[in-house]
Amino acid sequence: MQPLIDTFGRVHKDLRISVTDRCNFRCQYCMPEEGMVWLDRSEILTFDEIYRIANILVERFGLESIRLTGGEPTLRRELHVLVSRLASLGVELSMTTNGATLERHAVDLFEAGLTRINISLDTLDRQKFVELTRRDQLQQVIEGIDAAKQAGFDPVKVNVMLMKGINDTEIIDFLEFGRTSDVVIRFIEFMPLDAGEEWSQDRVVAASEIMDQVTEHYRSESLERGSSPAERFRFEPKSDVSSDLGENAQWGEFGIIASVSEPFCESCDRIRLTSDGQLRNCLFALEHLDLRALLRGGGTDEQLAKAIVEEVEAKRSGHNIGQVYFIRPSKSMSQVGG
């Protein structure tokens, strides 16, 4: 078995697969309210094509984990069928979802072999939720979180994209939500992949700012990070804070993905497959490998594997966010897959 390694010595063992570019939300930082042109269904990889690529990566290169993304992955019809096929490869199989339709799918996905789930939720305030997502579905997302727990997913992780002036005042609210609901909160720094191209450095809530709020209210200690993009902590309320935090105190867990202020590119082990078959060696890659063309042009497994090796070898040392020579990718988060 050949390790999938780039010129900087990074071994790649994690694949993110976008199964659709479509989404039932219109989050401000992800896509415009109107005017999105969806890919024709003929342009989207079939389950057979996705499985073939994943199988090559597992059998030839020792891939260990796969994460399904979108758009919103639960909009892909018969998703549990794909989950079952990918689970047969023996990898850790997870999914990131907005949770709005998860109540209907959680049991089927768990029984099909999905092992972990992350649910994106950027505010606990209903009005703010409507403003951010342009949909009035906060309650459905909360119900989706509950459904995931009841189906057997453990832990359930809730991803929070923090943005100054929008939801940076909700850090403590989310920590309490996570601690009392027994879910893991993961705070994510705002990255320049918004469809409106309004990202700026001063809108980023840095990891240090998050920890300033945490330490004001909680005792915390670091947990082993491993290859995870999140720095992990366990926490509990301090004894000297208000009774609503200290009452029935219990430990919780949260993480911080500091992609901007503390980039972890030197340990990145991820590659990404878009819904239309582009293999991207970085979330911020400016170029890609068109695997769909190879697949549908009669390419052999050997040819596909060779092309994948060359694409990974071309990976840059880092994304260079904040540097004068940073070039913003042409595709937004919804088109690349988170």
Core attributes:
single chain; 338 residues; alpha/beta; TIM Barrel; twelve-stranded mixed sheet; 11 helices; 12 strands
General description of the model:
- Helices cover 31% and strands 18% of the residues.
- With 338 residues, it is α/β, with parallel strands linked by helices.
- Strands 7-8-9-6-5-4-3-2-1-10-11-12 form a twelve-stranded mixed sheet.
- Helix 1 links the parallel strand 1 and strand 2.
- The radius of gyration is 20 Å and the shape is globular.
- Residues 241-248 and 322-326 have low confidence and may be disordered.
What series of H and E elements makes up the topology? EHEHEHEHHEHEHEEHEEEEHHH
Taken together, the total number of domains comes to: 1
Relative strand content: 15-25%
Mean pLDDT: 88
Q: Can you give me a brief rundown of this structure?
A:
With 338 residues, this protein is an alpha/beta fold. It is 31% helix and 18% strand.
Summarize the topology.
Blueprint lengths: L13 E5 L28 H15 L3 E5 L9 H9 L4 E6 L4 H11 L3 E5 L5 H8 L4 H14 L4 E7 L8 H11 L2 E6 L17 H11 E5 L8 E7 L5 H4 L5 E6 L12 E4 L4 E3 L8 E2 H6 L4 H13 L19 H4 L2
Parallel strand pairs: 1-2, 1-10, 2-3, 3-4, 4-5, 5-6, 6-9
Antiparallel strand pairs: 7-8, 8-9, 10-11, 11-12
